[in-house]
Specification:
Order of helices and strands: EEEHHEHHEEEH
Radius of gyration: 27 Å
Oligomer: single chain
Largest sheet: 4 strands, mixed
Number of domains: 2
Structural class: alpha+beta
Number of strands: 7
Helix content: 25-40%
Strand order of the largest sheet: 1-2-3-4
Number of helices: 5
CATH architecture of the largest domain: Orthogonal Bundle
CATH class of the largest domain: Mainly Alpha
CATH topology of the largest domain: Endonuclease III, domain 1
Distance between the termini: 65 Å
Shape: elongated
Length: 164
């Protein structure tokens, strides 16, 4: 093993039961790295999970690059990737005043569903919790109307309407 690669880790190295350690992680020799990388990737969990799994027990200087290369060449990963083409983003004109253009979306957090309404000008979010079991179009429309009654109708300014 070329020790120069490990000079930066000299204060963390130790030997225990014939194993060279970096902290509590076993330093894997080059001849064993591909086998260890395969074992780390055995569950096909993606780069971040494989990296975290390796970080708990093994080490070598290029471990992250080796794991990433293995994950990128995984046949199962390539087969299961979404084959649907990504839709290109269509930018919108930037609003010139608050509440001229808004966006809405639904999201879940900690088991509850919420309605998000955001002003494109200020990026100010308004969030309303959707009552449990009432996630219907009627409920969403009612919550949206409630926000519009508080904030005003988007795009309506001095009698002029903006197209949304």
């Amino acid at each position: 093993m070329h020790l120069r690669k490990y000079w930066a880790y000299r204060d963390e190295r130790s030997v225990e039961n014939g194993l060279i350690l970096k902290g509590e992680r076993v330093i894997i020799p080059e001849s064993q790295r591909s086998d260890v990388t395969e074992r780390i990737h055995q569950a096909h969990q993606g780069f971040e999970n494989c990296r975290l799994r390796a970080k708990s027990c093994v080490f070598w200087p290029t471990i992250n690059n080796d794991i990433e290369s293995r994950v990128q060449t995984c046949e199962i990963r390539q087969e299961s990737q979404n084959s649907q083409a990504k839709e290109t983003l269509e930018p919108h004109e930037a609003p010139t005043r608050p509440w001229q253009v808004i966006g809405t979306d639904l999201f879940f957090w900690k088991g509850d569903e919420y309605l998000l309404i955001c002003d494109y000008y200020s990026k100010f979010p308004i969030i309303r919790k959707i009552p449990s079991g009432q996630s219907t179009g009627e409920t969403v429309v009612g919550l949206t109307k409630g926000v519009l009654s508080e904030q005003g109708v988007p795009g309506h300014y001095l009698g002029q309407w903006a197209t949304i």
